Amino acid sequence: TLRLEGSGAFIDDIFGFETLEMAGSDWTLGGTATLLAGPGTTMVSSGLLRVNGMLTAPGGVTVAGPGRLSGSGSIVGMVANGGTIAPGDTLGTLKVTGDVAFAPGSSLEIETDFGGTDLLDVMGSVTVDPTASLDVFFAPGAPDVQDTTIVSTTGTVDANFLVINAPNALVTVELVGGSTLVLNGMGSGALNTVTQAAAEEGFSFQRAVAGESRIRPISPDSRLWARGMADYIERQGDRRNAGYQQDITGVAFGGDTG
To answer: How far apart are CA 2 and CA 8, in angstroms?
Structure first.
C-alpha cells in the first residue's frame, strides 16, 4: 500500500503497489501511477487528490465523504464518488475510462471562467443519486455559458442532478440524449448588467420627460404643442460587468382642450 499523508507531488511514475490511499491534505499525481490487480484500488479518504497524469486502478477509485478528486488527467477504472469530483486543476477535463457513480450526498463541482468550463469525460456510464448535488461556480465577470457540456459519456447518464448549487449565478442543466449533461447560465456580473441596464432605461426615460426642454406650441395661436425628449448614457465595463451605451430620443405631441 502506498499511503499519502500531508501534501506533495509525484512527477515520476509509480509502479508495484496494490493499493493507493490518499489520507493527506493535497497531493498531485503528475506521472503514470499503475496499481497491480488484486485489489488495485485507490481510496481518497480525505484531502484533495489531483490526477494530472494517468492513474490506472483495476479495482476502481473510491472517494469518501470528506475527500476530493480533481485534475486534468485520466483515470482507468471505475469511480465510486461519495465525496466531491472537481474536474480540472482550476479549469480542465478529467477523463475516466470506466463507470462513474455519484452516491447519496456526493457532488460534482464545475467551474467556468474566461478560459472555458470544466468537463467530466466518461468512457462508460454515469449514475446520479437523487441527493447528489451539482455545484457550479462562475468566476467574477465570466461570460454566459450556452449549451456547454459538463458531463459526456460513451454510455448513459441515468438521471439529471436534482440538487443544483450556484452561488451568485442563474443556471439550468439539461440531460441530452440520455448521455450528456449540458449547462446554461449566467454569473453575477451578467445578472448585474441586465438589472442595471433595465434600471437605467427607466431612469433615463424619466430624465428625458422631466428634462429642461419646455412645451412649445406648434404655432402662436395653436392649442397643439410638441416637446422633444433626449437622454444619453454610457457605462464603462469592468471585470464583473459589461459596458454599454444607450440613448433615448423622441417627440411628445398633445393639445389643450380648455
So the answer is: 14
